[in-house]
Design goal:
It is globular and about 40 Å long. The protein has one domain: Beta-clip-like (Beta Complex). Helices cover about 10% and strands about 25% of the residues. By secondary structure, it is mainly beta.
Length: about 140
């Protein structure tokens, strides 16, 4: 983990990683969606940031509690990793060859229940700097 040009801290490859490698499990406290919403209420107009990751409609992982370094892997619109949900766990896997020293990143593709309006997109900005950057970490509905 070190300072990232994308945002805050980031995860970086300490050695070359070939495509298709399971790199790290996204760990944290298991919550219901209602518990996660109570813990982190959405405040309209404010930038939103948590370490929440939904496994399915019933389970959300809060990596701020009992999490590991996977929570610092940043978003990119041109990712080198993907988040894979398998047997109730989230794994970060490489989707292309990654060179030692390269920052690990996956597409958060965050989906809101509300419409993805320009105001909503401003609350979830992307700072990846990729040529294909869509300007938000929100995904397509």
């Amino acid at each position: 983990m070190r300072t990232s040009p994308i945002q805050g801290l980031g995860g970086f490859a300490v050695h070359d990683i070939p495509s298709g490698v399971r790199i790290v499990k996204y760990a944290g406290e298991r919550l219901t969606p209602a518990e996660s919403e109570a813990r982190y209420p959405d405040v309209p107009g404010e930038r939103h940031h948590t370490f929440l990751f939904a496994i399915d409609d019933d389970v959300v992982i809060d990596a701020a509690v009992g999490g590991n370094n996977a929570r610092f892997i940043n978003h990119s619109c041109d990712p080198n990793c993907d988040a894979v949900i398998e047997d109730g766990h989230i794994w970060i896997e490489s989707i292309r060859d990654i060179r030692a020293g390269e920052e690990l990143a996956y597409d958060y593709a965050y989906i809101l229940e509300e419409r993805h309006t320009p105001a909503a997109k401003r609350r979830y900005p992307c700072q990846c700097g990729a040529a294909t950057c869509r300007g938000t970490i929100l995904g397509k509905k």
